[in-house]
Amino acid sequence: MILQDKDRLMELLTYPEVEESIKRRVAINLKDQKTDPVYKINPSLVADLYSDWIMPLTKEVQVAYLLRKLD
């Protein structure tokens, strides 16, 4: 059954356009909140953190939840 397929669920939860938009928004928000002339942390580094860790882990939690709910 498709609903029990972890990889398929992950694929269904993945929207590359939305993820790229979030990544850009995170970087822009950090640049807008800058008070010092020098960044304490590079905004693109935080954007990469979101795309490489936060978004994938969030999807993994969603998949685990769905698999448990459908069990």
Observed structural traits:
71 residues, mainly alpha, 3 helices, EC 5.4.99.5, chorismate mutase activity, isomerase, Chorismate_II_sf
Descriptive overview:
Helices cover 75% and strands 0% of the residues. With 71 residues, it is mainly α. The chain has one domain (2-70). The longest helix has 28 residues, at 43-70. The chain is elongated and about 55 Å long. This is chorismate mutase. Keywords: Isomerase. It catalyses: chorismate = prephenate. Its EC number is 5.4.99.5.
**Structural class given helices, strands, pairing?**
mainly alpha
The tally of domains stands at: 1
Average of per-residue pLDDT values: 87
Number of helices: 3
The count of β-strands is 0
Percent helix: over 70%
The share of residues in extended strands comes to: under 5%
Largest sheet: none
Could you list the spans in which at least 5 consecutive residues all have pLDDT below 50? none
Radius of gyration: 16 Å
Shape: elongated
What string, H for helix and E for strand, traces the elements in order? HHH
- Measure the end-to-end span: 11 Å
